[in-house]
Amino acid sequence: MNQTIHRLAMIAAIVAFCVIVLGAWVRLSHAGLGCPDWPGCYGQLTWPTAEQEIQSANQAFPERPFESGKAWREMVHRYLAGSLMLLVFAIGWKAWRDPHATRKFKYLAVALVILIIFQALLGMWTVTLKLKPVIVMAHLLGGLTSFSLALWLTFSSRRRSNDKPNSRIRKMRGPIILAIAILSTQIALGGWTSANYAALACPDVPLCTQQWWPDTNFREAFVLWREVGVNYEGGVLDQPSRVAIHLTHRIGAVVTLIVLVVLALRLFKVPKLRAGGQLLMVLVLSQFTLGILNVALYLPLANAVAHNAGAALLLATLLGLLDKTTTRTW
Hints:
Number of helices: 11
Distance between the termini: 10 Å
Radius of gyration: 21 Å
């Protein structure tokens, strides 16, 4: 298959990872509404810098006074996301022009193009709907899905040996897929926790507000669609609802830890998958530790961003392992 596609897909995967990490930094530094309009920033292609521009920006958006530190972060994130979109368009164009690309591969490239367009819309709605939690969570999941598809295209387009995975390797395919499903669910819970500002709803570990099970409100905690027009910055849920979200994420973290550790131990027994199992073990233990430190250290920015990056790296590792169990017919 065309090696240009492979290189473009690999670059797109790297850029997508950077967009995810940068997006986490923007969100966790409370710069998600650093530009109250879209796609520009206070009506400009960049962001206001001159004094007159800042005054005009404040007059145009009196409800959102200009803050330079937040505005430039948001716009750099948008520029990087825009470059990813251009890369994805190039992949789609090259895939359909490549005579050696199979129909399945072309459809996968088109799926990535469609997803990246929808991801751009989610980015717009994140701003216009003022950090509506379900949109923020969907934007995070869309970014990780784009990263995953770009990574899978990278695997699929590289030159491969004619060796087919043996039966021991193929048997690991089901457990790896199960692990991906559980990790994806946990990532979604993490996105919901962050979008509802529930990361510190339980400020102690392993207890929660000095109790094993404090007051919770699960009915309100997982209402996906709420009122339009409300500014959700800082969150709107009461403490019992945030505690319910936080506890669910904690329980999910323990379940995910157990599943991935067991999978890693099983991978240790398969020679060709042992290195991937070792990497998986290191990453999942690091990720679990970062989650504990988020609470124990009251959500330091660097630690919280690393926790987001760790989720993406775990997903990438599982996809790489899945690729090793796959017999390519396309």
